Input
Amino acid sequence: MVFTLGTYYASLMSLISYYMVESVQSPLPWSQCRAEWGLNCLDSASGGESVEVVRNLTNMTLSYSSELYFVKEVLHEKDNINDGIGLPNWELVIGLFVSWAVIFLIIIRGVKSSGKASYFLAIFPYVVLAILLIRALTLEGSLDGIIYFIKPQWGQILNPKVWYAAVTQVFYSLSVCFGNIIMYSSYNKFGHNVHRDATIVTLLDTFTSLLAGFTIFGILGHLAHEVGTTDIGSVVKGGTGLAFISYPDAIAKFKDIPQAFSLLFFAMLFVLGVGSNIAMTSCTITAIRDNFPQIKQWVCALGLAVISFIIGLLYVTPGGQFILNLVDYFGASMIALVIGIVELYALGWIYGTKRLCKDTEFMIGLKVGVYWRICWSIVTPLIMTAILVYTFVSYEPLTYKDIVYPNWAYIVGWTIAVFGILQMPIWAVIAIYRQPGGNLKEKIVKAFKPQKDWGPTDPIIREKYLKEIELEKSKETGRGFFAFIKNNVCG
Output
């Protein structure tokens, strides 16, 4: 799943790099219509006059030049993929190559090189966001866009699809269940204050999301003002359309140096893409080298970059966005949700919330409150399970721009999803098989308990840890189902 996401992000970076190069042109290449696009095109750089044309030509389906530029000039997008996805666009192939070359150069020495790069990768986006936000606030209609962004639609609060979208967003934003957090934390010292780190990361993530939202919707509010509508939602494109259609459309209407703001925006997106992909790729490399330490870092990084580049060629074809949408749904979102739920039950009820909290207390000296115990063991698993069940019950065949995929695409998608999800039961069976024991029941019981070497590697700390565990076991009271629940949740 993580490997798939790495190829996914790099393909988006190829699109971003294409727009970065094009941003230096004057006028911006997507700001005006071209003859080969036909009569149903309106200049993105135009204001109210073009809107009047739209209102008068009610019998025609019209699109702004920013959308037609993205679809016809950048993607060369096909109407469907019934007859295949086509050949890669050489300009996007160059962008894809540059993206993987940058990632390879950063991770070539592992955390030593990626750690140094992270200072720039983390700070630069905030600088650009601040510049763009200041610019957005000077534009007419920007406050309407910001209000639209933060104003709740209470009628949607019980819509499971909204909660599924929210869960997916958080999973991507925090890299939950992708292994990245575990990979980075594996380099920490045993007593490192993970509680502090988790608090800082989640607060910063929320702040960044709000800052980006204010910036993007401020400029989209200006776009709505320019086209003469009070419905901000009507100018917002979903998915990749937000970055490559709606935002370029808004920038094209800037009267002062739109090239500079376009270049800043796409440079920021490229840096964010590099940062995300470094985490994903480093996670895969760490998993490989932990099992095969004889493989050198640069060899593993180079091999992964080359393989990912080859796979990424699928995404830069005329049918690439169809494949991207397919992989995003089946190869990432669905697998992450299932893995997240299994992790919750495994940690909360197999390893045990009680022991997890005791481990945390032993490592950082902080006692975990009842609120977190209840959330980890009951509330969060149940909510996530309900979302998953609803997702399957209300499942409708995936579409892209309301276009139904051919049957072979659905087969590929479900194959990817099943292959990812089946990893858990397959390795569980293997773990049971490898356990010593006279019968199947003994093997299963041992497989669902921590291994003998589980715990701190330092001998002195390990001895103290094992004594703590034995002491906690001696304090357990009562037997039976309800006693087990009480001990696990309340400690």
Summary: The chain has 19 helices and four strands. Confidence is low (pLDDT under 50) at residues 49-53.
